[in-house]
Amino acid sequence: MKLEQLINKLLFTHIIGNVDVEVAGIHNDSRAIKSNDMFVCTKGAKENGHAYIPQAIANGAKIIVIQDKQERYEEGITYILVPDTGKAASIMVDAFYSSPTRQLKLIGVTGTNGKTTTTNLIEHILTYHQHKTGVIGTIEIRYPGYQEEAKLTTPLCYELQRYFYNMKQADVDYAVMEVSSHSLDLGRIHGCRFKTAVFTNLTQDHLDYHLTMEAYGEAKGLLFAQLGNDYEQASYAVLNSDDPWSERYARKTSAQIITYGLGEAALVRATNINITAAGTSFTLTTPLGEVELSTKLIGKFNVYNLLAAISAVIPEGLTLNQIKEAIEGVEGVPGRFEAVQQGQPFAVIVDYAHTPDSLENVLRTAQQLEPKKLICVVGCGGDRDRTKRPLMANIAIEMADHVYFTSDNPRTEDPVAILADMTDHLTEGHFTTHIDRKLAIEDAINEAQAGDIIVIAGKGHENYQIIGTEKSHFDDKEVARDQLIALGYTQS
């Protein structure tokens, strides 16, 4: 695309060099630059892209977007000086990929817990009824004919708009994406036109970044504030009526609102809930009528995820019977209350729960299955919110009969110090600490007796562990299965 086409929507630009040049691609990572690409110098908390201009030019960049004046400008390179490179990038990348979200029906899901399950449920319902659907989320990016492991919950605009463009080229109708608080605060979704925005819940997480719950909640609210402000194209806000933050988000949006929950005030609600080890059933009540639903998903938190997904697809014209038919075929989501079964007489559950609220939800669901003994394996990530560590430990101690406190992803923190943050205040004795997560999982399985439930929390679908700056293969499910096999359980 010609540079002139990309910058004609920018209000204030100062051009140094030739504007009559072709742009082959746009990146803010100098390592990704190829011949005739545009390099955008963005400023982050730790890095300043302006420092990487020489590397970008060496790799083939012909256009450099800057917000700081330079002491020297290279011959043959075009420089675009703008007030804010991040904002300019969103506008130019959207133009470069021909505004793909104007041609897709885009559904965004935000909240602390439940984003992955809810996006997967929405995708399943739409796909089941022959809509080509793409997903961008914590586990992976996928659409018909393509699958890639995710690096971030919500990618930067450079990758995000490319994914949407490629989805459109693959004739995808709907894109469903997880929208993180970081991405909202940093403006990664600027330029995305959402048809529907879904809010799951808000509980403590990411305070290492947002510092306060108020700031965290306000960041989530940006998704609803950015829904279309006119009614030529319909937009919808799907809000959890049982979460107090929904009232704020309702005031922030001009979109039509669909509330869901367990209370009578919700437009879409569940009653007569019955939870067993085989699944969950409930009566779904909506403005369109009632229907009885049964699902293999287990737990009240999954009832909320189902209600959120159902509310998101109702505007797409699906009947309640169509929704029922799709939901009753759902098998589950990787790493979300996922059973590891090798024929053993006790249950092993792997779950991504890594916040106080999600851990409580998972352990409460396990309690409802009435185990003889509930065993929990849990740790906390390094270089993240330290204040939630004792909270998670308290929940585990209160709800489980025995707890193995261990490492999660320590990153650059000392794992011993992380465990100390979790356990120094504890006086009760029904817990064990193991720095080695593999050893903690193995000991928990060795301890289990018939009728017990083990919940291995924190990593879920992740197949790696980060210790220091080293990222190595580690999969809770694999470790658990290997130990079960070592004990003689070989029936898969």
Walk me through what this model shows.
With 492 residues, this protein is of the alpha/beta class. The chain folds into 3 domains: 3-96, Udp-n-acetylmuramoylalanyl-d-glutamate--2,6- Diaminopimelate Ligase, Chain: A, domain 1; 100-327, Mur-like, catalytic domain (UDP-N-acetylmuramoyl-L-alanine:D-glutamate ligase); 338-486, Protein-Tyrosine Phosphatase, Chain A (Alpha-Beta Complex). Helices cover 32% and strands 23% of the residues. The protein contains 16 helices and 24 strands. The strands form 4 sheets. It has an 11-stranded mixed β-sheet with strand order 9-8-7-10-6-11-12-13-14-15-16, with helices on both faces. Strands 17-18-22-19-20-21 form a 6-stranded mixed β-sheet, with helices on both faces. The chain is globular. 49% of the residues are buried. The mean pLDDT is 94.
